[in-house]
Amino acid sequence: MNGARLRALREDARITIKEFADKAGYTADYVSGIELGKHDTAGMPFARRAAEILGSELGQPVTVDDITDGVIPRRPYGSKKPAAPGTQEGAA
Fold first, then answer.
1. How far is the C-alpha of 55 from the C-alpha of 52, rounded, in Å?
2. By its UniProt entry, which CDD domains does this protein fall under (predicted)?
3. d(CA 62, CA 37)
4. How large is the greatest C-alpha to C-alpha distance in the chain, in angstroms?
5. Residue 25 to residues 49, 70, 90: CA-CA distances in angstroms?
6. Rg (CA), the chain
7. How far apart are CA 43 and CA 49, in angstroms?
8. Least CB-packed of 22, 55, 90, 92 within 10 Å?
9. DSSP code of residue 48
10. Residue 57 and residue 48: Cα distance in Å, rounded?
11. Pairwise CA distance, residues 85 & 73, whole Å
């Protein structure tokens, strides 16, 4: 994830971190961490939602590649996928 590019696009769209985070369904702290390079774990769902929001705000298409520099966001190696709602982790 290119946090500096995300921030530049967000600022071009003239929306605050709080406004962007609310629209995206994430916390402002999380978005700020991505923009500052503290979190590099933002996955594809975040990238897709960010592109959708920024494209809408800017009135022009914004792609995932515009935000990620063409690098597909993935969860860090070894991280576990969250359990589906209503299920218990490890239940068969």
1. 5
2. HTH_XRE (cd00093)
3. 21
4. 48
5. 9, 23, 27
6. 14
7. 10
8. 92
9. H
10. 14
11. 23
- Residues whose CB is less than 8 angstroms from the CB of residue 86 and which lie 6 or more positions away in sequence, other chains included: none
The type of residue at 15 is I
Does residue 58 contact residue 51 with C-beta atoms inside 8 Å?
A: no
pLDDT digits (tens, 9 = 90+) for 31-64: 999 999 887 667 888 999 999 999 999 999 999 9
Cα separation, 12 vs 17, whole angstroms: 12
Residue 36's Cβ-count burial label (10 Å; 0-12, 13-18, 19+) is exposed
CA distance 22 to 30: 11
Angle at 12 between CA 6 and CA 18, to 5 degrees: 65
Q: Tokens for 45, please give them.
A: 């769902």
All structural domains of the chain, each given as residue ranges with its CATH number in brackets, are 3-68 (1.10.260.40)
Q: What is the pTM of this model?
A: 0.72
